[in-house]
Amino acid sequence: MARGFFNVPKAVNEPVKGYAPGSPEREELLATYKTMFQQNIDIPMHINGKEIRTGNTKNITPPHDHKHIVGQYHIADKSHIDTAISTALAAREAWSSVSWMERASIFLKAAELLAGPYRAKMNAATMIAQSKNVHQAEIDASCEMIDFFRFNVSYMTDIFKDQPASSPGIWNRVEYRPLEGFVYAISPFNFTSIAANLPAAAALMGNVVVWKPSDHQAYSAQVIVDLFKEAGLPDGVINVVYGDPVMISDTVLASRNFSGLHFTGSTHVFKNLWKQIGNNIHHYKTYPRIVGETGGKDFIWAHNSSNPLQVATAIVRGSFEYQGQKCSAASRAYIPQSLWEAVKKHIIAQTKEIKMGSPEDPSNFVNAVIHEGSFDKIASHIDAAKADKEVEIIVGGNHDKSVGYFIEPTVILTKSPTYATMTAELFGPVMTVYVYEDAAWEASLKLVDESTEFALTGAVFSTDRYIVEKASKILENAAGNFYINDKPTGAVVGQQPFGGARASGTNDKAGSAQNLLRWTSVRLIKETFVSPTDFKYPFLG
Ligand code: NAD
Questions:
Q1: Catalytic residues, which ones?
Q2: Model pLDDT for residues 96-152, shown as the tens digit of each residue
Q3: HSE (side-chain half, CA atoms, 13 Å) at 75
Q4: Which residues line ligand 1 (CB under 6 A)?
């Protein structure tokens, strides 16, 4: 029961730790990595707070050392999904009506636990199972996840404060109810923070959730489950299931009480889920909310007024950090002829300095790509480029999956703006460059806008403000996150709300009030203090 209008702590971004040689955080993290790497962990599903072990398991192997087994996770049959749904619905009554302060407190506590005792564990799990280097694990699995929890609590209270005006004699108020039913969260492999945020954002607003993490993120998902439990999340609010995504989705989407999809992953999976929801529409109690953040083909465009070293650095960082497996990673660049030789020289010099290998060695900037399917897809595109006389590999081009799924950071030069790797999302450390005639800069912006179906992130480089303004206008709908003189990656919660439109998603901006609004259904309450007693209006007189 609330007896006051409470303010929540001011949300601030979690400072990123440096992990410099000799620092205590580096020693703790590398020691935790070593211990966890040698353990064999058995990861259950979590339904109604209970650990569910089916005996039907799959191994977890680090992408950079795929013969080494660090654990197994248990997978569901249809009956487990049915139980997860009924359990969530049973938990709904208490969770949807508990004071918002209790829910806020759980996620604020989760943020503090993660900033402290859970930090090394969450980062190490992400390094091991998703092959992120120390810095990439820190900015994702710790800082971004902490920021999601803190800022979402703050945004929730901003939403609640948004109330209508009331004329004399009446009192209008809106209450932000959770959706009627349960939310289905499906998360991708590439960000531990996104995996936590998809179920947590909906749960914070009072919803109950069935969460299906990616098979390739189960290891760090288990640390998230432990974190939520220690923070005090009641049983049944977030139920975690693993297994065949088609079977799970068929079962979930057939439920009359399905009321929202919170998805992040690839475009074709999302489109199929949307279609399936459409086909079932007559069956649902309420129109389901559909939120999906999906694929990208993110660009860097440079004008001849830009600095070649800055452009090259943005390409190297923006394309190769986390092996190009950020949805925001740059993978196509448009460079003017007069700048190309200088940009190329810097790209080659910087890329040759990059070390690749296990994240256990912090001097490795690039680690392995997530799994064999991804490795084979990226390698086949690189091999096709090698064999194609129309394109040239400027740097990189090697790959080796004997120990881990390692792909050398690779830059391809093409004469065709619609070449395969200029338009398809590869999700790997591959950048393709198209060089345009300086005078045709405006036409090249149209190519950026029209060459792909995506519109997630993009960056333009120029020191000429007329050009910057023109580029911003022509590319108005080409990116949901648009960068000027910066790489197109590294969005920070509370500063750059993230998401794209066109085939890249519903652009509901993760880490913002817009996203949280999707998990509420407003009830307007109008109260009249002295009710009328005569039906006749004055005009009838
Ligand atoms: P994915 O689409 O393969 O998998 C995402 C999730 O969907 C996983 O949990 C997976 O098990 C599940 N899934 C797979 N097939 C399914 C099906 N038929 N029905 C239901 N669920 C299914 O994506 P991924 O490889 O894990 O992640 C990479 C993709 O995610 C890239 O396309 C990337 O651009 C995108 N992504 C986008 C954002 C964003 O904010 N726009 C953020 C991160 C990742």
A1: 293, 327
A2: 999 999 999 999 999 999 999 999 999 999 999 999 999 999 999 999 999 999 999
A3: 14
A4: 186-191, 194, 212, 214-215, 245-246, 249, 264-266, 269, 273, 293-296, 327, 425, 427, 456, 498-500, 504-505
